[in-house]
Amino acid sequence: MRVLVTGGAGFIGSAVVRHLVLDKDYEVLNVDKLTYAGTQTSLNAIGNRPGYRFLKADICDRSAISEALLSFRPDRIMHLAAESHVDRSITGARDFVETNVMGTFNMLECARHYWMELEAESKAAFRFLHVSTDEVYGSLGADGLFEETTPYDPSSPYSASKAASDHLAKAWERTYGLPVVVSNCSNNYGPYHFPEKLIPLTILNAMEGKPLPVYGNGANIRDWLYVEDHARALDLIAERGRVGETYNVGGRNERRNIDVVTRICELMDALAPKPVSHASLITYVADRPGHDARYAIDATKLETELGWRAQENFDTGIEKTVRWYLENEWWWQPLRQGYSGDRLGLLNSDK
Ligand code: NAD
């Protein structure tokens, strides 16, 4: 099995690449531009495995992507490359439109031309998995869950750009017959998560005795999924998902942001004690504009149709994650130092 993964140097993409190469023994070509969010150190575990190749390229670059397809000849594309940080999309949306919308358009077009030339058997077996977010559905009230049929209603420039890319992916299936499957997942957490995101930022600021910023009153709810559970789900959806269908992915782990931050503080008190409790560092900051109140996923379709189950619950997953950051300073320290934003410690993202 040959899989072309885009964005494989990012948080979720690297978990996907590690799973495909190390657990499944697949051949993988990782296509990544290595933006500030991408680092090949997340793939150190792969070592010199012969099945793994890396190409530094922009998904908007038509000739680079076409050439990669023609030389690697994948059976499957798993498209994860994106600009992913909601706060950055609010202060500068252009990169989000270029990469998430135009980049996805380019991936679909290059894939279509490659796929059209395949022989009948390979053509029928080919899959393009477009990886997306539950944020495209907008915000929930106190009740209800996002289903695959929930209408799109994105709030941020990030989620609007992802929604646009989902529509393009579905249109390429309906119009051209490209075998596309779409997945929409809730918030991921786990090892190798870039230090600007809520959970790693909280752990690292707590470690350094810095303020732990929480938006608004901290009551916003997210549905957390351990990243390795997402990677397994994506492999399964690419393998057995029905063409033209959407699959929601979520861990049934709804938590208020303040409860997530408080739990990290408790773990830090136990694992890396300080003279004062870490919770005393919690600092409420002005709410994010357009901040969605609640996300929660109904993953019944994925569970019943494809037999997927999240293996990690939030209590064990968050403890593993805190321990991982405590033990892997070699990974996060260069990223935290090299990170150009002056927002570290001031703003965070729920993603
Ligand atoms: P990330 O920001 O950690 O990684 C993105 C990767 O894409 C990086 O390695 C970056 O270098 C690469 N990239 C960015 N622009 C590129 C371009 N123009 N060309 C080539 N490579 C480029 O993101 P993530 O959190 O791993 O998210 C991966 C995918 O999953 C995204 O499509 C995101 O929308 C989706 N998603 C994320 C979450 C989450 O909680 N993080 C949840 C659901 C869905």
Automatic annotation (TrEMBL):
<dbReference type="InterPro" id="IPR036291">
    <property type="entry name" value="NAD(P)-bd_dom_sf"/>
</dbReference>
<keyword id="KW-0520">NAD</keyword>
<dbReference type="InterPro" id="IPR016040">
    <property type="entry name" value="NAD(P)-bd_dom"/>
</dbReference>
<dbReference type="Pfam" id="PF16363">
    <property type="entry name" value="GDP_Man_Dehyd"/>
</dbReference>
<dbReference type="GO" id="GO:0008460">
    <property type="term" value="F:dTDP-glucose 4,6-dehydratase activity"/>
</dbReference>
<protein>
    <recommendedName>
        <fullName>dTDP-glucose 4,6-dehydratase</fullName>
        <ecNumber>4.2.1.46</ecNumber>
    </recommendedName>
</protein>
<keyword id="KW-0456">Lyase</keyword>
<feature type="domain" description="NAD(P)-binding">
    <location>
        <begin position="4"/>
        <end position="321"/>
    </location>
</feature>
<dbReference type="InterPro" id="IPR005888">
    <property type="entry name" value="dTDP_Gluc_deHydtase"/>
</dbReference>
<comment type="similarity">
    <text>Belongs to the NAD(P)-dependent epimerase/dehydratase family. dTDP-glucose dehydratase subfamily.</text>
</comment>
